[in-house]
Write a structure and sequence with these properties.
This protein has about 325 residues and is of the alpha/beta class. It has ten helices and 13 strands. It has helices spanning about 10-20, 35-45, 50-70, 90-100, 110-125, 140-145, 165-180, 195-205, 210-225, 285-295, and strands at about 25, 75-80, 105-110, 135, 155, 185-190, 235-240, 245-255, 260, 265-270, 275-285, 300-305, 310-320. The strands form three sheets. It has a seven-stranded mixed beta sheet, sandwiched between helices. Strands 1-11-8-7 form a four-stranded mixed beta sheet. The chain has a two-stranded antiparallel ribbon with strand order 9-10. Helix 4 (about 90-100) links the parallel strand 2 and strand 3 (about 105-110). Helix 6 (about 140-145) runs parallel beside helix 7. The structure holds N,N-dimethyl-L-histidine.
Length: about 325
């Protein structure tokens, strides 16, 4: 519904439009407050969530090859979008330092908290590393970086973060990155792959309920920030995976009819029993789909690094 209201924040606006839409939806980016960040850390340690371990293996196995590709012109700037805790990146940083490569690391994240703890841990674990962190939205920071062309840029996006965007938005994201790249710059990105559907469902629907708590954190946050009265226990966390499209979708499903008040945005929302809120997509890929996304964004794939079982792959792209 197009609203004539004025909102104080994009959270207010997005929640209003998502909960007055049919079917109802909420953007997954709002899961990540302090609790959401902590729950995601726990997800990454779960045995079912294979993505983090898979990418860790790839970086460990191919760090030497990656150092040669990245450093082909002698010296580079490594710019990481959505750096998080840097656990995986440190494998590369450590290796590049041991080899005495001339490089500078620029982690970018929306959360200043995340960047502060990353910087502190890098200072302790990798003293001597040249780091300049940048806080902000990727698009804005990338725009600023577009003008910077002193030496080769390697833009890195790990964790299959792109999978949380529908294809159209993923292409916008890739185009934005592409526009900030010079002719010799590279993009290094992780893409989770299509696989046995049960493996994917298990990764997003663990027995311990961590992923359910992560998904329901949207409601907890809305209760706190928009003075709302959602009862998170009245919703089921529900995961689906469509093996044809490769799209995993998370929902919150109302277990009974209810009415929720969101006082801060003067909104009353009615739920019928079994009505859904779509909260997240986690897209799974194959080489053809990644090639198509690259083509749509004026990029080409130059190298592919996969796990032995091909469950996860990292791709290198350059400008077409
Ligand atoms: C951050 N992102 C890539 C995760 C994913 O796999 O889609 C978020 C997540 N959602 C549930 N589990 C993990």
């Amino acid at each position: 519904m197009k609203s004539t209201r004025t909102f104080m924040s994009t959270l207010e606006e997005d929640v209003f439009s998502g909960l007055t839409a049919y079917p109802k939806k909420l953007p997954s980016k709002y899961i990540y407050d302090k609790t959401g960040d902590e729950l995601f850390q726990k997800i990454m340690d779960m045995p079912e969530y294979y993505l983090t371990r898979a990418e860790f293996q790839i970086l460990k196995k191919h760090k030497e090859k990656l150092s040669k590709v990245f450093d082909a012109f002698g010296g580079f700037d490594l710019i990481e979008l959505g750096a998080g805790d840097g656990k995986k990146t440190k494998i590369l940083l450590k290796h590049f330092m041991e080899k005495g490569l001339d490089f500078h690391y620029t982690p970018i994240d929306i959360s200043q908290n995340v960047l502060d703890s990353l910087k502190a841990s890098l200072k302790e674990e990798l003293p001597g590393l040249q780091v300049t962190s940048r806080q902000g939205m990727y698009f804005k920071v990338l725009q600023d970086l577009a003008g910077y062309n002193k030496r080769r840029k390697i833009i890195m996006v790990l964790g299959s973060n792109i999978g949380n965007l529908m294809h159209k938005k993923a292409i916008d994201f890739l185009k934005n990155i592409r526009d900030s790249m010079g002719e010799d710059d590279l993009l290094f990105m992780g893409f989770d792959q299509k696989k046995h559907p049960q493996v994917i469902l298990d990764a997003y629907n663990d027995n311990t309920g961590i992923t359910a708590a992560f998904n329901k954190n949207l409601l907890v946050r809305i209760n706190r920030e928009l003075d709302a009265d959602f009862e998170p226990d009245n919703f089921l966390h529900w995961e689906t995976y469509n093996p044809e499209t490769g799209t995993a979708k998370s929902f919150l499903v109302a277990k009974e009819p209810m009415t929720v008040q969101l006082k801060k945005i003067s909104l009353e929302v009615h739920f019928k029993a079994w009505e859904t809120i779509h909260t997240e997509i986690s897209q799974k890929y194959d080489d053809d789909t990644v090639r198509w996304l690259a083509g749509q964004s004026d990029l080409v794939i130059t190298e592919i690094f996969g796990t032995d079982d091909e469950a996860y792959k990292n791709y290198i792209f350059k400008r077409r």
